[in-house]
Amino acid sequence: MNRTLTIIRVAFFALCLMGGALVRYANPDWQSLGSCLAVAAGIGALTILLDLLLKGFSLRALTAVTFGLAMAVLISALINASPFFDKGDTTVIFQVRIVLFVVVLYIATVMALRGRDDFNLIIPYVRFVPQEVASPLVVADASALIDGRILGVCQSHFLGSTVVVPRFVIEELNHIADSTDPQRQSRGRRGLEVLNELRRVPGFELRVHDITLENRQQMDDKLIFVARSLKARLLTTDYNLAKLAEFHDVQWLNLNKLARALHPEVTVGDGFTVELVKPGKESGQAVGYLGDGSMVVVNDAEKFIGREIDVEVVNVVPSAGGKMVFARPVSASGRA
Asked: Residues 99-141: pLDDT tens digits?
């Protein structure tokens, strides 16, 4: 991309020089060829410099500026048509009109640029008629992508929403992946891998949301702002961010709650297979875990530690972490 832009800039500068030479030959009475080429080179250099200064200037900002310019022209036309300029010195009136036009142009442009993120007409994915939107929007943060379970949820088409990933979230994942800490590096790469896999899920729509926000804003504030602007829900595994979203009336999706809800309830008399991983507190007991993290205490099963056995539930006791299941073995021998 940078190489292509360099070629375009060089070609543009060469065209400016050619234009200066053509202007000189078309008007022999004008200044020397060197002066025309110098003026043309200056115009080309200033244009390229303006291009470099506008690096990172988003399409949304350009649209906001265009809207501001249009409003400025309209206001200036109304001022120009007012009866205040019917009488007086024409030179003074002309100068006042120019000053007013420049002032109005500046104010309207700056106001439109500052409010570009609140201007509904230029926010991508905004739902002008909510009842006609086929799929709601979900804004995913870095923690949800690093967690990875979002991939399975989207592959199963259980999440009937379009997932929006802000550009600054991708930049955050890149920053984490470039970390010198091996654990952070692994987490960042995991998030980027999940993002790439999401792009390849058939029948699933993933959008990258380009938005320019102040760098001094906290990441959580940026995510909540985007979710509120798009009237979207927030998908995160960050508990603090989730609570902050609730405070700002932004609905959030809890992957942990979804995982717990998908596990069937265990009641007395149910049978299932569990892997026993360690001895229990009482003699002869062995401990295993359900998929949702609930502890399973199996009586008379210490000899089966390290194996999978079939058990039958004899009691379920609520605990601070969810529930504790007591069971007894129903198989004569365990499976390695």
From this structure: 777 677 667 666 666 655 555 444 444 443 444 444 688 999 9
Handedness of CA 236, 239, 240, 246 (dihedral sign): positive
Question: First CA to last CA across the chain, in angstroms?
Answer: 56
| Cα–Cα distance list, 286 to 296, 320, 321 (Å) | 8, 21, 19
DSSP 3-state assignment of 299?
A: coil
Report the distance separating Cα 123 and Cα 207, nearest Å.
13
Query: Beta 295-298 vs 286-289: how paired, if at all?
Result: antiparallel
Give the ranges where the chain is alpha helix by DSSP (H): 2-26, 33-53, 59-80, 90-114, 142-147, 149-155, 167-177, 182-199, 219-229, 239-247, 255-262
- Ranges of the chain with pLDDT below 70: 1-2, 30-31, 54-62, 64-65, 82-90, 92-93, 95, 102, 105-106, 108-135, 212, 214-217, 320-322, 331-336
Structure tokens at 166: 């802000």
The 10 Å Cβ neighbour count of residue 135 is 11
Cβ-in-10-Å burial (0-12, 13-18, 19+) of 336 comes to exposed
Phi, psi of 298 (to 5 degrees): -110, 125
Residue type at position 97: R
Write down the pTM of the prediction: 0.49
At 213-230, the pLDDT tens digits run 766 568 888 889 888 888
